[in-house]
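Quick one: structure for this chain?
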Amino acid sequence: MTLFLRRSLTVIPVVLAAACTSAGPRPVPVSARYDDDALERLRVDQGQHEVHAPALFALAPAPAAAAPEGSWPTEAERIDVLSLDELLRSVEARFPLILAAIEELEIAEGELLSAEGGFDLRLRTDGAAELQGYYQNESGRVALLQPTTAWGATVFGGYKYGGGDFPVWEGDRQTNAGGEFRAGVRLPLLAGREIDSRRLALWRARVTRAKADPLVLQKRLEATREAAMAYWTWVAAGQKRGIARRLLDLAESRQETFELSYAEGELARVVLAENRRLVVERESILIQADRDLQRAAIALSLFWRDDSGAPKIPDDARLPEELPTPSDPARITHADDGNLALQRRPEIRALELALEDIDLQVRKAQNDALPRFDVGIAGSKDTGDAISDPDDKGPFAFDVFLTLDVPLQRRGARGAVRALGAQEVQIERKLQLARDQVIAEVSDARSALSQSWLRLAQVRENVQLAEEIEQVERLRLEEGDSDLLRVNLREQQTASAASMLVDVVAEHFRALAEYRASLGVSYDEFVHTAP
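Got it. Here's what it folds into:
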C-alpha cells in the first residue's frame, strides 16, 4: 500500500489550480475621471501588450499552463486564439440583423429624396390653334414653377405667345410679335406660411432618416451584447471541459498505479474496482462537458462568420488557454453614467424623434385651421412689333392678386390636433418609462460588475482552500489515515471550486458586456474612436 501511495503522489500534480488561475494580461491602471465622452474610461493603456482592442472586450492569450501531453497544439501548429475583439468585429461587419438594419438607412434616404421631390422645379406648357372659322389664331405658353421652403413661397416665370385674330373677350391671349415674358412670386400669409404639406413631408422624412440611426445602433448593441454572452459561455465551457479532462487524467493515472500495485499483491481488488468506477464516472462527465462545449460553439457560430457571411463553428484549438484577469469596476464605472446613457441609448433617441414627428403634425393641423390668404405679385412685358395702335401690349405691367379661402367649421383640423395631442402625451409617458428603465439597467449592470468583483475574491480563496485540503487528504492517505473515497471527495470539491471560479469570471465579463450596452456605446463606435 505504501508503494502505491508513493507512486500515486508522483502522478498527481496540482492541475486543477492551473484551470482556474487568472494569469491573463496584467491590468494597467485606468483613470476614473469622468470625461465628456465615456469612451475614454472604457479604454485601457495596453502598455507593451500587442492588443488592438480594449481589455473590456478583447481576450489576449495567456502564457501556456501545464497540460497533459497532446491536449494543445505545438507552437508550430498553434492556431490563433479567437478573441472577443475578432468576434465582435465579425459581428459588426457580417451579422445579418445589423446588415438588415443598415438597409433602413437606404430606405430612409430614398424616402427623404422622394420628399425633396416636392420642391422640384416644374415645367408647365400648353398651346391652342384655331385653324378655321371667323377667328383664326394660334397661342402657346410655357412656365417654370419653383416651390421653396421659405414661407411656402412659390417663384414662377414664363413666356407666352399669341398671334392672329382673337375675339375681344380673349384679348389676354394675344401678345406682340415677340411674345410676352412674365415672372412673379406667390406667398401665403396665414395658412401655409409656417408649414404646408410639402414641407411637412420633407421634415417628417428627415425625422425618419434620423430614426434609422438609433435603429441601427439598437441592433448593434443587441448583437454585440448577445455575441459577448455566447463568447464567454463558450470560453467557460472550454475551461470546464479542461477541468473535467484533468479530473479524468488523475483517475486514469491512478488506475495505472493501482493495477501495478494489485499485480504485486499490495492493493485490494475493491480499491482497484472503486478507482475504475471513478474513471468511468469521470469519462461520462467529460462527455457531457464536450457536449456543453459543442453546444456553446454552435451558438457562437451564429455571430462568428466568414467573409461570405456563413456561420463558422470555432475549433477547440481556438479556445483561450486561460481566462483573463478581471479589473476593478471602480476604474470603469461612474456615478454619472445614467445621464450618459440617457443621451446615447437608441430607444430614448427614437422616442424623442417620435415626439418631434408628432410636433410637426400638430403644427400642420393647427396651421390648417387658419384661413387661406395668399398674395401674389407678377411683372410682365411684351416684346417685338406692336399689334395695335396705340400699343396697349407694350408697356411693362405689374400685377398684385389676392386669394382668400376660409374653413368655417374646421373640424378636420380640430380633430387632428386632438388626436395628435393624445399621441404626444402617450409618447411622453413611454419616454418617461424608458428613461427610468435605462437608469435601472445602468444601475443593475454596475451592480452586477461590483458583485462579481466581490465574489471573485471569495471563490479564489475557496479554490485555494480546496487545494490545500486536497493535499492534506493525500498526505493522510499516504500515512494510512484516509482512503480513496475521501481523496475523491476532495478532488471533486476542488474541481467544483474551480468551476465556480470559471463561472464568476465569465459572469464578470458578461456583466462588462451588459454595462457597455447599457451605456449605448456600440463596439463599432468604440473601435473606430480608439487610438
